Amino acid sequence: MNQCFATVARGLEALATQELEQLGASSVKSGFCGVAFEGDRALLYRANLWARLPFHILVKLHEFPCRDAEDLYRGIQTIDWSQYLTPDQTLAVNATGKHEQLNHSHFTALQVKNAIVDQQQAAFGDRSNVETQAPDVRINVYVDRDHCTVSLDSSGDSLHRRGYRPAVGAAPLKESLAAALIQLSGWQPEQMFYDPLCGSGTLPLEASLKALNIAPGLFRRFGFETWLDFDPDLLEQLIQEAESSQRDLLPAPIWGSDRSEEVIQQAIANAQRCGVLDHIWFSPIELSDVVAPADSGVLFCNPPYGERLERDSDLGAFYKLLGDVLKQRFKGWTAFVLSGNKELSQSIGLKSSQRVAVYNGTLPCQLMKYELY
């Protein structure tokens, strides 16, 4: 049974806990910016394939007291690295956390790398090379107070990078945050979904993946695929199960629009990459021309907070226009607006029925819910 830790964005720990429990993880415990859990190899692969919220899923190898650089070096050398890494494989070390003696992550990572390659050199007369972009094995080291935890990163690239979105707009929303916002809203696939400020399409695409029960990890590779104990048959079985569980049709329409023809083309390209182009509708429409495409549904949008429009544009007027469009044209709908600017959100001119605090990267934001009567 593996002891694992899923890293998530701040504030999403409770949602990620629910998600991992639903996937079959055991001993699930929420922490700061992450969730600890246990599971076998099949659960580890399934969590990487299906979890929509985590960034990385780490598998713990060892923990030990660590007061300084010497303790760190010795502790790393107590691990038999030949179980996880051969000299002809590449490695990368990611260090997080710190205390007084180890307060620079680059130095900590260097010390860990030295301990590993020195062990290899002594045993085999050869050593792994460092490869920061696409290593065979990613090692994660977390130093907290006088304690060090060493893990392998089973995900490789962050799981929010689904693999369907090389085309992005100017200020893209992370796929994992988009999935979390949809989860927080309580939206159900039987309700129409519309994003009138969709950019490269992240919110409608994540809604489509959820509604069609498409595993978000189907479009990418994982870190564990280059591990020495990788079981390709198990992964193939899980992929086949995921593909056979997909739905053929959306229960209700999912639409996205944006003022820019160029970003709509990006959204269409992204929809094609994740196999939902035949299910989803994208079109270039100015916000001032947007009308409700149905009597009821859920409207979602992530309007600009300052970076996404020209600097001389009047964002206050833009938010007022958004509020007017919602008030006048979306009666019977529920709207969710993500905003990182309290002053701008007041320009919408509507009273929110609910506000949920979330982080978009390091920026504190609010997801505001509006019941439109």
Automatic annotation (TrEMBL):
Spans traversing the lipid bilayer: none
InterPro entries: DNA_methylase_N6_adenine_CS, RlmKL-like_Mtase, RlmKL-like_Mtase_CS, RlmL_1st, SAM-dependent_MTases_sf, THUMP_dom
Stated name of the protein: RNA methyltransferase
Keywords carried by this UniProt record: Methyltransferase, RNA-binding, Transferase
CDD domains cross-referenced by the UniProt entry: THUMP_AdoMetMT
Lineage: Bacteria, Bacillati, Cyanobacteriota, Cyanophyceae, Leptolyngbyales
Domain THUMP span(s) in chain numbering: 43-154
Molecular function via GO: RNA binding; rRNA (guanine-N2-)-methyltransferase activity; rRNA (guanine-N7-)-methyltransferase activity
PANTHER family: RIBOSOMAL RNA LARGE SUBUNIT METHYLTRANSFERASE K/L, RIBOSOMAL RNA LARGE SUBUNIT METHYLTRANSFERASE K_L
Coiled-coil intervals: none
Lineage top rank: taxon: Bacteria
UniProt organism field: Phormidesmis priestleyi ULC007
